[in-house]
């Protein structure tokens, strides 16, 4: 009877040790951020880490169908809040700064009339010769129509019809801060008259704001 009991004890002890050895599984883990949060086919997610079985347990794990690689969303900070983007357009300042520099774009000679008109009408802007030195750009078009032979002979009209259109652009923002068009019929001084009309209204715009 004693021998039988000893054998049973040995068998039970051996079986327990064998079961513990079989249940012991060794795993290796890595940080998911090193692979852009991608799990390999033989890996599982454990406490935010990518882990896989190594050693004898790896053979048993290989018999089970491998899972396809999956993207794992990175853990978010506990207090992280999404801040909505403000789609409100930023207002553009259209005020013309008194005393600022201005570059007059060549307009087939009309720029000379504009420069003289700015000075004559005391417009508070300083003309400069280089666009890089200017705060504002003054550009536009000018058209002069001389009377035909019939008007000169029959109607005794020797004056011209003149039209001009100008724009003042803020180089910093690209905004058009001033625009004006003028159309003069039967003018005596032609482009000088239209240039002075543009300068007059430009001065009023600056002083208004």
Protein architecture, described:
The chain is α/β, with parallel strands linked by helices and 209 residues long. Helix content is 31%, strand content 26%. The chain contains five helices and eight strands. It has a five-stranded mixed sheet with strand order 5-4-6-7-8, with helices on one face. A three-stranded antiparallel sheet has the order 1-3-2. A hairpin with a 5-residue loop joins strand 7 and strand 8. Helix 3 crosses helix 5. It starts with a helix and ends with a helix. The N terminus is likely disordered.
The CATH topology of the largest domain comes to Double Stranded RNA Binding Domain
The CATH level-2 architecture of the largest domain is identified as 2-Layer Sandwich
Q: Which structural class do you get from the secondary structure elements?
A: alpha/beta
| CATH homologous superfamily heading of the largest domain | Lipoprotein like domain
Helix content: 25-40%
Distance separating the two termini: 116 Å
Uncertain ranges: 1-22, 64-72
Number of strands: 8
The biggest beta sheet is recorded as:
5 strands, mixed
Tally of helical segments: 5
| Helix-strand sequence | HEEEHEHEEHEEH
CATH class category of the largest domain: Alpha Beta
The tally of structural domains comes to 2
Shape, principal axes of CA atoms = rod-shaped
Strand order across the biggest sheet? 5-4-6-7-8
Kindly report the average pLDDT value. Answer: 74
> What Rg is obtained from the alpha carbons, in whole angstroms?
44 Å
Strand content: 25-35%
């Amino acid at each position: 009877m004693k021998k039988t009991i000893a054998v049973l004890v040995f068998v039970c002890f051996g079986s327990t040790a064998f079961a513990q050895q079989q249940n012991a599984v060794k795993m290796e883990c890595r940080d998911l951020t090193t692979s852009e949060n991608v799990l390999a086919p033989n890996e599982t997610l454990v406490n935010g880490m990518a882990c896989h079985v190594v050693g004898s347990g790896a053979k048993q794990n290989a018999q089970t169908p491998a899972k396809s690689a999956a993207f794992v969303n990175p853990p978010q900070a506990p207090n992280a809040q999404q801040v909505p983007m403000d789609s409100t357009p930023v207002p553009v300042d259209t005020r013309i700064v008194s005393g600022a520099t201005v570059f007059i774009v060549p307009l087939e000679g009309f720029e000379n009339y504009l420069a003289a008109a700015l000075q004559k009408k005391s417009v508070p802007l300083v003309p400069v010769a280089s666009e890089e030195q200017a705060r504002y750009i003054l550009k536009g078009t000018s058209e002069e129509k001389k009377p035909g032979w019939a008007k000169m002979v029959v109607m005794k009209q020797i004056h011209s019809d003149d039209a001009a259109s100008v724009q003042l652009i803020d180089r910093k923002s690209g905004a058009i801060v001033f625009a004006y068009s003028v159309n003069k019929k039967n003018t005596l001084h032609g482009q000088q008259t239209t240039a002075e009309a543009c300068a007059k209204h430009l001065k009023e715009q600056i002083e208004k704001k």
